[in-house]
Amino acid sequence: MNIVLLSGGSGKRLWPLSNDIRSKQFIKIFKDENGDYESMVQRMYRQIRAVDENATITIATSKNQVSAIHNQLGENVGISVEPCRRDTFPAIALATAYLTDVIKVDPEEPVVICPVDPYVEMDYFEALSDLADIARRGEANLVLMGIEPTYPSEKYGYIIPKNDDAISTVLSFKEKPDMQTARQYIEKGALWNGGVFAYKLKYVLQRAHEMIDFTDYQDLYAKYDTLEKISFDYAVVEKEPSIQVMRFSGQWKDLGTWNTLTEAMDEKVVGDAQMNENCSNVHIVNEIGVPILAMGLKDVVISASPEGILVSDKEQSSYIKPFVDEMDQQIMFAEKSWGSFRVIDVEDESLTIKITLNAGHRMNYHSHDYRDEVWTIIEGEGKTIVDGMEQPVKAGDVVTIESGCRHTIIADTELKIIEVQLGKEISVHDKHKFELEE
Amino acid sequence: MNIVLLSGGSGKRLWPLSNDIRSKQFIKIFKDENGDYESMVQRMYRQIRAVDENATITIATSKNQVSAIHNQLGENVGISVEPCRRDTFPAIALATAYLTDVIKVDPEEPVVICPVDPYVEMDYFEALSDLADIARRGEANLVLMGIEPTYPSEKYGYIIPKNDDAISTVLSFKEKPDMQTARQYIEKGALWNGGVFAYKLKYVLQRAHEMIDFTDYQDLYAKYDTLEKISFDYAVVEKEPSIQVMRFSGQWKDLGTWNTLTEAMDEKVVGDAQMNENCSNVHIVNEIGVPILAMGLKDVVISASPEGILVSDKEQSSYIKPFVDEMDQQIMFAEKSWGSFRVIDVEDESLTIKITLNAGHRMNYHSHDYRDEVWTIIEGEGKTIVDGMEQPVKAGDVVTIESGCRHTIIADTELKIIEVQLGKEISVHDKHKFELEE
Lengths: 438, 438
Fold this sequence. Notes:
Strand content of chain A: 35-45%
Shape of chain A: globular
Number of helices of chain A: 10
Oligomer: homodimer
Distance between the termini of chain A: 41 Å
Largest sheet of chain A: 6 strands, antiparallel
Largest interface: A-B, 58 and 58 residues
Helix content of chain A: 10-25%
């Protein structure tokens, strides 16, 4: 099976555990078979591999998620990176070209496109495999998954099938309705449109060539920023007369709010937290190093990260977005391809961060114009390169780096570093990257 | 007026804002006339000064509160330090000897003893002044304040006065009763015993000399650890036939739990926090550098410090103690006479703290046996002395201090320092202090 996972979203609804660079799919709150915590993207990746260990999995995403994806799924995962945001049609066209031109998949082969964030069980992936098989048969150009509605939701678009067969021709699509209308749709046998569909690669390639002047993946990638923003629905689905829908009645949950997310949690508490016996329906996710104590609460979610603390009635948590929009705060933690960092102190003219560099990894070789840095190695062994000079370092060593100075650090074992940044204008944008001559 | 404020308590009931070294009286949650936050002890100190600007105020406390008292009340406040804990009679005897022998107050003068933690208004201090005047008249050896009960509390001892005059002879004292009994006491005109009383200094000195073999304050201080643990009630009050009580009907609140403390807060929020319009009777005290967002909560207190986060129904918050007793955690922040510190990162073999040294102050000259330290100055100017070598330092400078090395830092302006401690056995007890030769 060829599968493209669409990984997008800014995830403000799950503040403070998601932020501009960590979307909700990277929060580790589920448990795998070994009892280790895993994120939505790790869970889905594992589930796909369990259903089809030879699946070609490609993550279609934006630049700012690449580090987190490598951190959570390893270096070898296929990623189709959008150079900039251009809505779903260009993104899907790019991923399709990536599969044929980079991964060299036969254009006659089907691919399944699905969002990375629904919370599903194994039967969902078996259904995706069925969806690919139906697309391979080629009775229609596009095959959608139609999810059997469990309630008249206003949050989803609806698919009206011709009949109630397992596989049916699509009569029409409906935009997100009000509840009244949703009820009527459901009475007529409508299905939720979860944005999951399959097609033969050549089909979308052809549509893409009709609308965009490009030769291959590299060319499409190079001119990506010139493309029109247009959704896949508008560009393809609405114009296509030959569409089938396959019913799916298994578990399919959209975990977009704290309310729905906590319903899917295996345990009431993730991280250092406890509650007294008078708490009911309380969930706590604690990603900071100090304990949380909850007493006498009902229907409440508590979540804490280096960016803030949310304490919310579960129902009310869906109204979080405007509050978070106004915060506009500094990124306080991130997962990078080489490890992770966390801001531990902020002053006007200094910023102190704790860096964890995974064994065998290195930072980019880089310099800053407007800040000096002091590294104190607190754990591990490795080497630094400062203006071309290589030096071994270990716990207890201090490295001072003046502005303008090129530097990197390479971890032989896992390295932990306290980095103090000093300057009047400290900014993530003050960075020049260089190639390292070795 | 001579007044001794008894400042004790471990303050676990107000976790995470109080801990073993910061008792509840040091939490800054009230507002003074200028709109600045002040603690209970600062508030009480300010109120006494407003009623009697020449009052001799002495704080009777244990060693571990001295730094916080100097930090909040300045260097010139009178402090009678108990070398170790020996219950209230030795503590009051020591403070009494301190007043006569160190401050040189005439033993014929009265003194008022009161706990530092009730939440009161100015009329309370006028009543204390009256209490001193009554003691000066000498109709009785001991004059107590009797607080008019507002409900049949099980938390306080009761004083049974002979009659309902403003000043009356005491008939008897009653231990904390059950609610039924409390009702009966109140019907008989009983008053709450808030532990507030006045006496002529010579009276307690005489009792002390009868029970303890000592010459003066210095001698009593020197043999303090050999003294028997005995309460003032047991040693003095129960044996004294000549006791008066003065009624007090003004505001007097014991802010011992989050529930009662939040009732006395001037604002619903202290620190970086917001709540949506569906919160009612919610109070937030946030002492950490990240925002708190509360949504749809009712009757809840949220408080956050570098030691943890409490989210509790207000009623339930009074049951916090057993949970906190079990935590037994590291001290993560403290106010010192020279400034303050906060732990910002903890690893097995390193500890990173942020130190703020107030202008004109210095650390003790000291060394450690089992750890190295790295100081990165992030703000201010001053000088370091390392093994006798003095050196000016400013923001951006790095000082490395190996184990065994004597060191201190002196703040010319306010200094902020990131200190990384490195070693296999990092402990607050690993410290040798030295005199500095200048």
